[in-house]
Amino acid sequence: MPASRDAGEAGGTRGPASDLKRSGARHACPSALCREGSLLLGVVTPGGTVGYVQPPTRIGADFVERAQAMGHPERRFRFSADCVEAACPQWTGGGCAVVDIAIQTAPAGSLAAAQPPDPAVLPACAIRHSCRWYAQRGAAACAVCPTVIADMGGTATYRSAQAQASAEAQAQASASAQVPVAASDGDGGSHGRRLN
Fold this sequence. Notes:
The chain is an alpha+beta fold. It is built from six helices and six strands; from the N terminus they run E-E-E-H-H-E-H-H-H-H-E-E. The protein has a four-stranded antiparallel sheet with strand order 1-4-2-3. Strands 5-6 form a two-stranded antiparallel sheet.
């Protein structure tokens, strides 16, 4: 399978994506922003999963401009670019939080929840050899990859959304542990208050 496509500027892409096989130590982010020079990895299907483009196509400025004019390109497409590690809000210091969260929250019975996932049924992927997620979590990362949509709206990131969900769960647990009691309000009446 060829790993490049040269569609030229008229098609919204530029040059071959021939550098998919890298000799350097950089990993590829499989969920990058829509920027000139990124690889178009896939298209989000009506079912909400990613259908992979074979081969991935390097995008040009005109593609980026058109995609952004339609709003939120990361809701409709998946892109790849170099992993920027600590310069990314998803970086945990040792890896990408996105793939960890995706694996932790995979529905029971899904390919991603299988331990270990069957490599024979993993999606075809042109960046697996350099993919940050695959290097970090192996086949389990590939199993959840088609379910990750980068832009779900607002300004939340994967990690901030996970932190918010965790904080809400802790607040809910704390609220249910509180016991209502009657206390004097100093004028002979009483009011309810919760004690921790």
